[in-house]
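For the sake of transparency, this paper describes our internal protein records without simplification. Because each token names a local backbone shape, the row as a whole describes the fold. One such record is reproduced below, unchanged from the form in which we store it.
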Amino acid sequence: MTNEDFLKDSDQENTLNDLLSFDLCKELNKEALLKEDFSVDDFLKEIYKFHTLEDLQIKLKELLNSIENDIFTLIYNEYNSFFKVTCDILENENKIVDLSVRLSKFKDEVQEIYKVIQQNVVSMDQELSKKKELYRKKAIATNLLNVNMMIEDMENLLYKDSEKFDDADTIVLQQAAKSYISLRYYSSLIPSQHPFIEKRKEKIKTVQNNFFNCLASALHKYRKDASQIENLLRVLQIYREIDASAEACHQLSKIK
């Protein structure tokens, strides 16, 4: 065998090995076509050594169909996703609109209730003010009646001449003391400028002075008589109850 024959056989063997190792399905795929450095000329030169153009055309058509199917599937899936998202957005938007309408309606109802409550509060305040004023007037009227009753009680109890007290008069003085205390209390509940008080100011002063004169007369009488120690103590107790202990001391200092 000559060297030329050997080289020829060697080239055929290498070509056969390359042909057996070349897989058109493997080389002709989407990944290969999507490479950044993909060159159509280089690719065709490489393919052309092992396959005919008819084989390449068939494979390219298959690949094209596969790509079209993938594109259709991708678009379909993306469209479905987009449509679903759109439907969700519209549904949520409708819910938001419905909620907004309900909130607006609820707000209007709350405002109406608030107005009614405010009107009721104002009405209640007015009624309460009227009732307070009526109660105040009734209280003043009641206190005025009580003041007048205490004046009359003291006048009726102290009609006797203060110089003619006996043992029973300490009981009268005790009753008069209660009326005096009540008179002071009810008078304190009435404004001093009230017309009723203004008209009876002199009368009140007169019965109070008469009461203190009767107390002083009894104190002097019982202080001078050693047998009247119990009545003396009763009179001193009356002074203490009407918060006039200083007046009692003053009267005692005048007794010789």
